[in-house]
Write a structure and sequence with these properties.
This protein is α/β, with parallel strands linked by helices and 309 residues long. The protein contains 8 helices and 10 strands. Bound molecules: adenosine-5'-diphosphate. The site of adenosine-5'-diphosphate has 12 residues, from strand 2 and helix 2.
Length: 309
């Protein structure tokens, strides 16, 4: 069974909820629907994911070590949609790998549900651009794969595959092979496969970067709907600031190497949002202004290019 609906679509369209759970009026200035239950677990003192004084250094070819992340302190609330933006090389992927338990930090602590992360776990799953779908398995078998690994009984597996393919509107494609699907459909299979194992935290690393604009728009809608329906916590890395504002409850901007938190932005715009919304574009412009310096630093470091030369 798909977990109970924690936010209704009506809630998304009527209500913008800030991190203290405060109600706000919608874009038309109409008071938010009082029947909508505020998301109780969005209190700041509860963290789903907690990054405490995280630093990561890597060995390089020379004797020096490269500091990828430095002094990162970040709390992610249960059910939050958090977007992380920053220039290429600022440590965004590294951050997701730490939370996934695929890599260890040099110093600091990563906690999920107040428990130290020391290895990968079924409560967290990483989705990235190269989907890792198995071409020799059907769509249904791909979605079933993680459940088999978990030792889920056959009957339960079958029900979950049905439910999650339905959730991503691919129920008619259960017996197709992934090469028979479009890029957007394959990305939805990857999403269904990840969701089927019912992780609490979805870690998404530029999942839509390779898709055309139209398909990406559709997947933004789908992801927002699925997030609303399942109440998962999502940490979404992107270099696309407008995408971050379109999707996120909050956007965290990282500096270029070493990656530090430069600024956090609460996005209290009403949902559903669209990339073309004036308010989305306005907020993206504000973030982009802050990001520009970091991009220039990354260009300088990578290509010796001086922005103001
Ligand atoms: P982003 O996802 O923001 O592009 P990454 O997390 O991939 O950044 O990388 C951050 C920095 O750490 C980059 O400069 C990258 O070259 C470096 N880096 C990442 N992984 C390794 C590694 N395994 N060994 C050495 N350097 C690495």
């Amino acid at each position: 069974m798909i977990p109970k609906l924690r936010r209704t679509t009506a809630a998304l369209s009527n209500l913008a909820i800030d991190h203290r759970g405060a109600r706000r009026s919608n874009s038309h200035g109409v008071a938010a629907d009082l029947a909508v239950v505020p998301i109780a677990d969005r209190t700041p003192e509860i963290s789903k994911v907690s990054l405490q004084d995280i630093s990561v250094t890597y060995a390089t070819n020379s004797d020096e070590r490269l500091t990828a992340l430095q002094d990162i302190n970040l709390q992610v609330r249960p059910g939050e949609f958090l977007c992380i933006v920053g220039p290429s090389g600022c440590g965004k992927s590294t951050l997701l790998h730490l939370i996934a338990g695929l890599q260890r930090q040099t110093s600091g602590h990563v906690l999920v549900d107040n428990t130290l992360v020391e290895a990968p776990g079924t409560d967290r799953i990483l989705i990235f651009q190269e989907l890792g779908l198995f071409p020799w398995l059907t769509v249904g078998q791909n979605v079933e794969f993680g459940l088999r690994m978990k030792g889920t009984p056959k009957q339960v597996r079958e029900a979950k595959v049905r439910d999650y393919l339905h959730l991503v509107h691919l129920q008619q494609f259960a017996d197709s092979y992934t090469h028979q699907l479009s890029g957007g459909m394959r990305q939805r299979v990857a999403l269904a496969r990840a969701l089927a194992t019912e992780p609490d935290v979805l870690l998404m690393d530029e999942p839509f970067a390779a898709l055309d604009a139209q398909t990406r728009d559709l997947l933004h809608d789908e992801l927002e709907r699925i997030w609303a329906q399942t109440g998962r916590t999502i940490i979404f890395v992107t270099h696309n600031v407008r995408e971050a504002v379109r999707l996120g409850d909050r956007v965290v901007l990282l500096t270029f190497r070493p990656g530090r938190v430069k600024r956090e932005y609460e996005v209290v715009l009403p949902r559903p949002r669209h990339l073309e919304d004036v308010d989305v574009a306005g907020m993206a412009r504000e973030i982009l202004n802050d990001l520009r310096d970091e991009i220039n630093k990354s260009l300088e470091a990578e290509y010796g290019y001086e922005a103001n030369a």
